[in-house]
Amino acid sequence: MSQRSRLRPTAVASAAVVVLALGLTGTAHAAAPATAAGSSARTGDDPDQPDNPLYDAPEGFNVQSGREAVSLSWSLLSAATAYEVYRAEAEGTGPDEVGPYERLATVRTGAYTDGAADADVAYAYKVRALDDAGHVSPFTEPLRGTRDTVAPFAPRDLTPVREDERGVTLTWRGGDSDAVKYVVYRAESPNARRVKAGSTTSLTYRDTKGDPGLTYVYEVRSLDAAGNESQASNYVTGTRTVTSATAPKAPVVGDAHLVGKRLTLSWTQSPYVPVSSYTVYRSRTSPVDITDPANRLATTTKTEFTATVGEDERDYYYAVVATSQHSVSSPASASVRPTYTAPRPPGATQVYDVVPGAGSVRLSWFGVPYGSDESRVTGYRVYRSTKPEVTKENAEFSHVTTGWEYVDRGLTGGTTYYYAVATLNEDGLESALSPEVSATPTA
């Protein structure tokens, strides 16, 4: 027989458990082990009896307060098949200020979530192990937990203490509460939506990610261990300084399409670091390697770029880099591949003025506009016939011009001539003819 069993006979050990429970909880009922169904007592009720394999309480018992529940966890015992979870209201901070324990649940794992706990009420929890033979272990030491829904106090006296090219440094005073962390928010104006800038466990924070030159509104909120967030502190403003070494922000390409042979790119740029030019790069792979000089396509001072490309150039990716007035380059924009649209004929024009002259006729027509998703208009073709109902097929003469007017010379006086005009685009497509007009030149 072991020393443990010699010092503690079964009957004496059982009584000792009850006496111990009275000292810890104030009630014998709470600490007494649950009896098996159909029996008033069982040999396994005494953790110290000789044949009890559960002579130790579960180790690693942990209680974590949360907003939605109290989470319990413990280490598994090899001889145990189940665990009983008990809870009591904790009226104060002392070990005797605990109400009667009630069994919450019997589980077979090493964890339990108490989602039924009343909000903001302190509870004491303890756990013991069971096996299939009716043995029970001692209880773990009670630990306290609360389903905490009370937010901490708000931080006070938020102040920007430094603004330089590396960022904005803020300090504040804690709210004398249970805060374990502080969350810093910023916005681009007092009425704009706040965005999380970062968090810290200290009473200071440096925001290094804001756009240089842009004045932000800052506020701080306290966060407790249960995830409750306080009201906002006072708000302040701060600006990351722009210097000659400040790089512009990367452009944001918003439009990239290819209609036939017409390439169009456009982008936006943060205005807080002045930009003098943009460089367009391209390659057949993504992301575009802007360090390769062979990928450099063009430089422009505008926030858009258009070009005519060949049919074998439709599969390129494009990226844009901004350069400041002090020759500092931004990171590259995201690499984009333009969407391709098959070319379509341009819109038709209309002749609005026909003036006959001596052996000549002057025609004037409307210029045809084209959108960003259309091929560029490159000119107009004038068709002429001495018979009405002129078509492209029966025309006796045609002439291409880039302007919106044409003087047809060398005509025979007294002969009536019939005209129609078609629009041309850079993909070589031609519009339908304009409505027919006629004129009779003088001799």
Compile the SSE list and pairings.
Blueprint (H helix, E strand, L loop, with lengths): L2 H5 L2 H16 L2 H4 L30 E3 L5 E4 L8 E8 L12 E6 L3 E4 L7 E9 L12 E4 L9 E9 L2 E7 L5 E9 L7 E6 L3 E4 L7 E10 L11 E4 L12 E8 L2 E7 L6 E9 L12 E5 L3 E5 L8 E8 L14 E3 L9 E7 L2 E6 L11 E9 L11 E5 L3 E5 L7 E9 L11 E3 L4
Parallel strand pairs: 15-21
Antiparallel strand pairs: 1-2, 2-5, 3-4, 3-6, 6-7, 8-9, 9-12, 10-11, 10-13, 13-14, 15-16, 16-19, 17-18, 17-20, 22-23, 23-26, 24-25, 24-27, 27-28
Structure explained in plain terms:
- This protein is mainly beta and 443 residues long.
- 6% of the residues lie in helices and 40% in strands.
- The protein has three helices and 28 strands.
- The strands form eight sheets. A four-stranded antiparallel β-sheet has the order 4-3-6-7, with no helix packed on it. Strands 11-10-13-14 form a four-stranded antiparallel β-sheet, with no helix packed on it.
- Mean pLDDT is 88; it is low at 1-44.
